[in-house]
TrEMBL record, chain A:
Keywords associated with the record: FAD, Flavoprotein
Taxonomic lineage of the native organism: Bacteria, Pseudomonadati, Pseudomonadota, Alphaproteobacteria, Hyphomicrobiales
Entry keyword Flavoprotein: yes
Record's protein name: FAD/FMN-dependent dehydrogenase
Sample GO molecular function, one term: catalytic activity
TrEMBL record, chain B:
PANTHER family referenced in this protein's UniProt entry, alphabetically: GLYCOLATE OXIDASE SUBUNIT GLCD (PTHR42934:SF1)
Protein name (database record): FAD/FMN-dependent dehydrogenase
Domain FAD-binding PCMH-type: 50-228
Residues making up the signal peptide according to the UniProt record: none
Essential cofactor(s): FAD
GO molecular function, one term: FAD binding
InterPro entries: FAD-bd_oxidored_4_C, FAD-bd_PCMH, FAD-bd_PCMH-like_sf, FAD-bd_PCMH_sub2, FAD-linked_Oxase-like_C, FAD-linked_OxidoTrans_Type4, Oxid_FAD_bind_N, Vanillyl_alc_oxidase_C-sub2
Alphabetically ordered keywords of this record: FAD, Flavoprotein, Oxidoreductase
Source organism, top-level taxon: Bacteria
Amino acid sequence: MTTHTPRDEQDASIIIREAADKGMLLNVSGNGTKAAMGRPNQTDASISSSAMSGITLYEPSELVISARSGTPVLEVMRVLAAKGQELPFEPMDYRALLGTKGEPTIGAVAAMNLSGPRRIMAGAARDSLIGVRFVNGRGDVVKSGGRVMKNVTGLDLVKLMAGSWGTLGFLTEVTFKVLPKQERMATLAIRGLDDKQAIQALSMALGSPFDVNGAAHVPDRDRRGGTTLIRLEGFRVSVDYRMNEMKRLLKRFRFMDLLEGVGAEALWQSVRDATLLTDHGNRAVWRVSTAPTKGPELVAQVAQGLDAQWFYDWGGGLIWISTPIDGDAGASVLREATRTFGGHATLVRAPAEIRSTLDVFEPQPEALMTLSRGIKASFDPAGILNPGRMYAGI
Amino acid sequence: MTIAFPQPDEAVLARRKEIVEGLGRLVASEALIVTEDERRAFETDGLTAYRRMPLAVVLPSTTEEVSAIMRFCHDHGVKVVPRGAGTSLCGGAIPQEDAIVLGVAKMNRVLDVSFENRTARVQSGITNLGISQAVGYEGFFYAPDPSSQLACTIAGNIAMNSGGAHCLKYGVTTNNLLGVTMVLLDGTVVEIGGEHLDAPGYDLLGLICGSEGQLGVVTEAVVRILRAAEGARPALFGFSSVEDAGACVAAIIGAGIIPVALEYMDKPAIQICEAFAHAGYPLDVEAMLIVEVEGSDAEIDDMLRRIVAIAEPFRPKTMKVSQSEAESAAIWKGRKSAFGATGRVADYICMDGTIPTGQLPYVLNRIDEIVKSYGLGVANVFHAGDGNLHPLVMFNTNVPGEMEKAEKAGEDILKLCVEVGGCLTGEHGVGIEKRDLMTYQFNATDLEQQMRVRGVFDPRWLLNPAKVFPLEGRLAA
Ligand SMILES: Cc1cc2nc3c(=O)[nH]c(=O)nc-3n(C[C@H](O)[C@H](O)[C@H](O)COP(=O)(O)OP(=O)(O)OC[C@H]3O[C@@H](n4cnc5c(N)ncnc54)[C@H](O)[C@@H]3O)c2cc1C
Ligand SMILES: Cc1cc2nc3c(=O)[nH]c(=O)nc-3n(C[C@H](O)[C@H](O)[C@H](O)COP(=O)(O)OP(=O)(O)OC[C@H]3O[C@@H](n4cnc5c(N)ncnc54)[C@H](O)[C@@H]3O)c2cc1C
């Protein structure tokens, strides 16, 4: 199979236009660290951003960075860190969970709308993505958005590209809004709460004026209790003050620790990357998004029907669940639960046979599928880009 | 009158009676406005220099009614202009003679609030401030705060992706919207998103936000509500040059501080606002910044101390850190009265472009030159943290030709914004006002891709047509 590695936008445009003319299906990738996600697709060739690297604009005082899509995420982070800044949405790294190697690219962060624990406060990648350049399925070079934070000029195609998993266009350049890295991080850990109590505590913390930007709950193996994590960041004085107020606010939950430093950072990284579930090597992994207070009930229903393991992020609104891979890997039970409690479930990890027979993403009502098919056709009329990666026919 | 309107469709005009009767069967009589007198209230929006009398106005009360109206218009080929409160400054809600106005202002209830999940489900005709008022008793608020928040609706905010003074910290509408109920042109009701984060599939919510009434009529919304900070306090700095003020903004952000508001006023704006509000603004400076920070008293003190230290090297002529509620109120009163106060000294058009903040001094000097070259005056008040400029180009309606000159100057200013890497509109939208300038920011391919997406939702261009895209452009789609 041919792998195209265009050097620039023009190159990419020629490759894609030719493919469209011949009806050749293309797999779109960065460095392929997440090739094992989504619906497996059968393509004739692939196009990768791996040869399109480099930061094209960085203005720290304007809080903006642009990079070619194949730029390693690590490089972007390093350049930002040198000026005391970071990607506010804390993108997750799927390599440990998926057991893949290689350097993840910044284009894929945009294409998959990746985000981590700070999503509850700072938004997802799409909220920080302010500009894109891409080649659509006709081979046209298109730009949307730009390098300024506020922009309501025309339709926001930037948002459409975020999270489109390479099905609408091949991103060539992405521009993100960035934020200053915080001076200090501190985490309050409450021990011994069951899921319901934990979500109550997290809701109280998130409903306080003290700017919580990480809120997770990790049940113990025996499910009799767990560790509930509340993270605060900011200037030293401010974190001290807010942490004291937080302890006072949550004093009825009693058994509390303050976590700081490398250990605490590693802990949040394992929440972010869902490595808390990786010891279940050959199990399926799901990512469920729901209203936080619905989380424990949803999980209880799932656990009745399946041998499940789980933890919560986003104040209870994001639930990582691992399930056995037999049968449908728990799909019917999970979909039933999201129907009952609202929200959606994405199958993140499972053998290819399962991913090719199941809906990896939450099925959508027919009216929304019709719109999605229309949108796909408006970018990629021949349907050559990552066909079927998100939904059959898209 | 320089902005063109398309010729109304004579066939539709001729069927007016039949169309009105058809609509009359779908809604109660008080929800249908047909007399010329009553329709006149809807013939323009915040861009009052332009007006067109709509065919009829419907003010439904439920999503079902909206659906029935849309299906009727779809079946009968009637154009629909969605409307909230009509405060659009770009003519986004201005009707056409062959279109009906579909207003959601009567649908203004709060349907559900969850403080635990930090969400509110509302009907789309509720005012922006109405949402904050409905959740204020628990200390919560809805963050994006356009200056028009007393009047404008969440429907209009969603359609325009509106922002306000607090957006530097809290983001604009798109960052605070979780779900919508929307009626498509053929009457189909769709639910997108909900009480959870990140809906599956394509980001339709992100696409709808800022789509200026071109994709469907939003009838309900789920928004994020936030717990308000314990307190907030502003400081005011006056500088002897535009360069110093601009460099100070960069230095604050470079130091890792994201104030909750960072507002800039130039000399004419300071003078106009001071004469009106007596806020104690310095009259001997070229530029002024209002910097507001939030938190507990101790946090605010710490942050303002840092900001004062950052500002000092830029030799501010005035430095005033608010010490009381009253002082804070005075500082904001001056800023918030900018539009009204300017209206008392001149007619003006309010532009809305965005620039990279590093270009601030160059752009402000150029704006001054541009406006002077037309023999007019300009006052600048804007959100400096995110580079969203609002030059108020002043003119006198009674002098023939002055308004056209002001429009021309405005056009030059927006082109300048694009030239330096910015965009045509940061929060007010394109509407009819900036429609013909779209080709400065986008090439034909960029625009075609946008128009094709629009066409997926509305292949016949019946929804709010003649807005956003150049009139001749749509033929290509
Ligand atoms: C040291 C390190 C730390 C990290 N830390 C973080 C972190 O803190 N936060 C974080 O978010 N992430 C982090 N990551 C991970 C990273 O965000 C993603 O895993 C990475 O971006 C995946 O890139 P890829 O090129 O391997 O994707 P691929 O597997 O190649 O592609 C994934 C998907 O994106 C699509 N896609 C890829 N490229 C394009 C393109 N150019 N145009 C259109 N679609 C495309 C593909 O079609 C596919 O659907 C970290 C990575 C490293 C190396
Ligand atoms: C004094 C003043 C100050 C302002 N300050 C700001 C500011 O600080 N920030 C800012 O962003 N804006 C500001 N604006 C502009 C304006 O208030 C905003 O654009 C606002 O969001 C418009 O809301 P509205 O309800 O009045 O909408 P309308 O003017 O009625 O309509 C605006 C657009 O929304 C569409 N629309 C309306 N309802 C629906 C619906 N249900 N479904 C789909 N589309 C719909 C219309 O077709 C139109 O395109 C200001 C305006 C004024 C007059």
